[in-house]
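**User:** Once you have settled down, spend some time on the protein underneath, comparing sequence with structure tokens, and judge whether sequence predicts the tokens.
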Amino acid sequence: MTDHQHTHAAVDRRRLAIAFSITVAVVLVQIIGAVVTGSLALLVDAAHMLTDAGGLLIALLAARLMQRPASSTRTWGLARAEVLGASLQAAVLLGVGLYVLIEGVQRLADPPAIAPLELVVFGAIGLAANLVAIAVLAGGRTRNLNMRAAFLEVMADALGSVAVIAAAVVIALTGWLQADAVAAIVIGALIVPRSLRLLRDALDVLLESVPRGIDLDDVRRHIAEMPHVVDVHDLHISQIATGLPVLTAHVVVDDACFHDGHASEITDQLQTCVAEHFTVAIDHSTFQLEPASAAARHDLH
């Protein structure tokens, strides 16, 4: 890992530690607020933020594990810790979102009494803290899945706080107690699709799907059009972690390339091609060159 990458990693860990501390403090305040006001939306937001605190802790641990060096048993180090961390966060978020939707629907039929003024106060405290956490995490949100998951969790918290405040205002102005349950349902509706998208992206890495932004057919076609290349097969492109795509392929070339010493030059050209030609650079590539005559004999068998 380069010094530049180490610097980014250290900054990301500091961001996550700050966001985690803020979230834990707000959870305590909101639990007190939910008891005082009797609000489901505030209780749900507190529960959501509690799971987010756990998610941020997972993200913080994953960010530390990702910096472990490679070894003879883990040749990529623990780079995929970010994916495992993001998967856990997404699963927890999804569970919270589904619970919120179910509980909110049930409360529509039998809403409890709500103290709107106190609800506004506690909702505003949560929103202010969430905005600070968002500002802290915003700079690193595109770095990897782990940071993206942490940012989405805090963003969902902020949206939940907005929903809580809106519910309190509606109850204060109209007396419509169901507004609290509606706010809880809105929070759940915001959480679930984001959780599913994050979980999908994490599973794509674990299932070694072709990374987004890379067209496998385009890569195959471009390699096949290079001089002396006869065919391409067993082409695989996957992703170890965010920003770390890998490629392996068997490339059939003219027999003459193995006699005139041209084979090594072709390998260099192939590696340069996949690293520079496409929108997503593939710096880790392995090509196995095969002579066309051997490939033809293999096809006959």
Q: What stands out?
A: Residues 216-300 form a domain with the Alpha-Beta Plaits fold (CATH 3.30.70.1350). The chain has a mean pLDDT of 80. The longest helix spans residues 3-37.
